Each structure stands twice: as C-alpha cells, then as structure tokens.
Amino acid sequence: MEYASFLRAHIERVVPLTDEEFEQVLPRFRPRTVSRRGLLIKSGDTVKSEFLVMDGLLKSFIYDEKGKEHILQFAMENWWVSDYAAFIAQDKGEIYVQALKTSVVLELSLSDRKELCVLVPKMYQFHGEKAFLGYVALQKRVLSMMKNSAKEKYELLLKQYPQLFQKVSKTLIAHYLGVSRETLSRLEKSHRS
Amino acid sequence: MEYASFLRAHIERVVPLTDEEFEQVLPRFRPRTVSRRGLLIKSGDTVKSEFLVMDGLLKSFIYDEKGKEHILQFAMENWWVSDYAAFIAQDKGEIYVQALKTSVVLELSLSDRKELCVLVPKMYQFHGEKAFLGYVALQKRVLSMMKNSAKEKYELLLKQYPQLFQKVSKTLIAHYLGVSRETLSRLEKSHRS
Lengths: 193, 193
Known about the structure:
The structure is a homodimer. The first copy, chain A, is of the alpha+beta class and about 190 residues long. The first copy, chain A, has helices at about 5-10, 20-25, 85-90, 110-120, 120-145, 150-160, 165, 170-175, 180-190; strands at about 30-35, 40, 50-65, 70-75, 80, 95-110. The longest helix of chain A is centred in the C-terminal third of the chain and has 26 residues, at about 120-145.
C-alpha cells in the first residue's frame, strides 16, 4: 500500500482532513523500512521521533539490572511506538524498539508534530484522541500489574489482543507477562482444559 | 479561590482562551466539595465524569481478591482523576476515588467534554496535552513496576513527588509502592543513612 493513502486513512479514522490539510501533513512523515531484529530506538539514544507502524510487528522493551528483558508493548499496523518519556523531553531514553519481522514505519519528529498541529489544528484532535486511548490502555495495564495473578494477566492479554498469539513467540509473550516460559506453558494448558 | 479563576488559569497554562471561549467552558464544570473519606467514585459505579482537583488531596485505588488495597494514583491540586477505562466507555468501573482530606473538585462529564471540544476546538489541544503527559507518566510507572526494586520505586516516587511525603501517611505510600509498611520503614532508614 502506498504510504500516503495508509496515513490519510489512519488519521481520518479520527478526524477528516481536506486535501489542502493533508498536503501539510504528508511531508512531515518519513517512511522507513526496518528489517527483522533491526532497532528503531536503543537505550541511550536521544529520542527525536515517534513511529506509526504501517506494516509488520515490533516490540518495545527494557532490560533490568539482571539483564532480564521486560516487554512494554507490541506494536502492529496502525499502532504508535516510541520511548515517550525521552521523546517528550528530547532526551536519552532507556527503551529499545525492535522489529520482530521486516516492518514499515512512518517516522514523525517532535518538532514536526508540533509545527503540524499549529498549521493544521485538527491534528491536536488526532493526537489528543490517540494519547487518551493510550492513557486508558496503560491505566488498565497498571491495574492489571497491581492486582492480577499470572493467570488473569494471561487471559486479559488473550482477550485484548487475540491476534498477538498467532504472531508472537511464546518466549515474547512470557516477557510481556513477566512470567517464565514454563509458567506460560502451564497457563496455556489450564486455559485450554 | 473562586473556581472560575482557578479553572481559567488551569486551562490557560496549556492554551489561552478568549472571554467568549471561557464563557462556553465554565458552565460545563460543576464544583463539588467532598469531605474526608468521601467517595467520588466507587467500584461498580457507572463512571460518567472526570474530576479536576481544585483543592485537597484524593487517592484512586482498587482492592484485589484478597482485599488488599493498591493505589493507582494520588491527586492533588491541578490533577485530574477518574476511572478512565470506565469513563471512556461510560461503563461500570472497578476503581475507588476517595478524598484523603476535604477537597474541592470540578466535575466534567464525557458528554460535556465532547460538546465543549466541538464548540471550543482549543479544548482538543488542552485535553490532548493533558492526556499525552498522563500517558508519559503512566509509561514511566509501568517501566518502574517492571524493572525496579522496592528501593528504586521508593526513590523514584520521592524524586517525582517530594511533596507527597509531607501530605500522605506511610501506610498509603506503602500501598502505592506495593510494599508492606515494614519494608517501607526499612527503605526510609536506608535512604536517610
């Protein structure tokens, strides 16, 4: 799919744009292809951009002090991903964003995002809606991390993102849930039975 | 402080409004006083509104299956609080929002929020900015929950919200951090020494 039509459809799911408005929007986004295992962001980078996934699958994750991987987010088509604390501060981050298969993303810098909102104020509505939905999803995630057992977390993930289980290895699901590979197998068995 | 001037100053920290625009904004917000231990939202309620804190201090929290309290958020002056998953769906929630001392909040319903954005599009920018900052804060919280030790979580909270430690009991800090009261005392001692 041509990226212009993908981008326009993505934005217009929130707010319709005139052709003149979209002409302002389009040149601010830069398409990039990232191959499997390729990194869009790595810990220690100054994070200048956020990324809209047009095709493929990525994960954002950190390592703890013991070198254990913890997955913050998977990102599929139409999802946004970045190290947002570093992005908003234009500072060095701690998150890695890596492609799990060859992916095409549209890159938007913070300065382009801000300038574009001034030129096309409807983009405030677009970004606001995305941020609000992201906030709601993260509030659910925090509550789940605080109160749910591993079994409940597994079932919530299965309910929220059933397509993930076809796309992502068991090891990665375990890293997202914060359980061992063995625990995950046990959860799967008890879920099926 | 009169609530109109509080509200105007709160919004104008993000985006300036004309007098005509603020006349549209003001009647959508309803001031409410909630006394110590009073509940703005309780688990099982249909959540129609969000709340901007004008004065006082509140907490949002859940109980897990064992009846243990987990604090999602403290809310002080100029903070917003609700059960956002339930608010956005206008559905029943699982969160309690309770005043820790007598507080004054400004209540905004989802329908008023939406209508107001249509009438005064600058409010898209205002809510978008708030949601984005909230998203960034929650992303930090999730990362901290995933990777930090109790000691690191304690130090992050102290750095982010030093004023909380004067306002809130040790028991509540422990409920926020997800540690026992005894562990918190140990963390405090090791921090001071």
